[in-house]
Specification:
By secondary structure, this protein is α+β, with helices and mostly antiparallel strands. The protein is built from 3 helices and 6 strands. It has 2 domains: 48 residues, no CATH class; 96 residues, GMP Synthetase, Chain A, domain 3 (2-Layer Sandwich). The termini are far apart. 8% of the residues are buried.
Length: 146
């Protein structure tokens, strides 16, 4: 991603999502990118396309890998490979939250000390991770048309 494509500090970034004629199916538009997302079958959706919880995991994973790769370049650390396995477990007693979210980064070609430094850069700089970690503000509102 080029520097001009990254949001500046304090910049507001937004996406648009529209419901389709198929119950539980949505088209997400983020700039010039568009994709389909589905609700889980348990929530009445088709469950064929990527689902909201998976998008959350993908956002954490891509933020992490982007920050880790960028930091490795800055520090002159040769990173042969970088992968992340992201998972969550829905809380069995409280279905409206996740009991845990885990990210396991596998970094090739670096020692444990360098890997820990790269991970610390992610955990210290990813706004998605830190909003979840620190319990940031989230709001929901509704408006009507016609």
């Amino acid at each position: 991603m080029s520097e001009t494509a990254q949001p500046d500090e304090g910049e507001i970034v937004s996406i648009q999502t529209h419901a389709t004629d198929v119950a539980g199916r949505f088209v997400v538009s983020a700039g010039q990118n568009h994709f389909v997302s589905d609700s889980r079958p348990a929530a009445g959706g088709p469950g064929e396309a990527v689902q909201a919880g998976q998008l959350l995991l993908a956002s954490l994973a891509s933020c992490g890998l982007g920050l880790i790769q960028g930091r490795a370049v800055e520090l002159g650390i040769r990173l042969d490979s970088a992968d992340v396995e992201a998972a969550f477990q829905r809380d069995p007693q409280e279905k409206t939250r996740y009991q845990w979210i885990r990210l396991l980064f596998t970094l090739g070609g670096v020692d444990q000390q360098a890997a820990a430094e790269l991970l610390a850069h992610f955990t210290g700089n990813c706004p998605i991770f830190n909003t979840w970690q620190r319990g940031g503000t989230i709001e929901a509102a509704v408006r009507t048309t016609g």
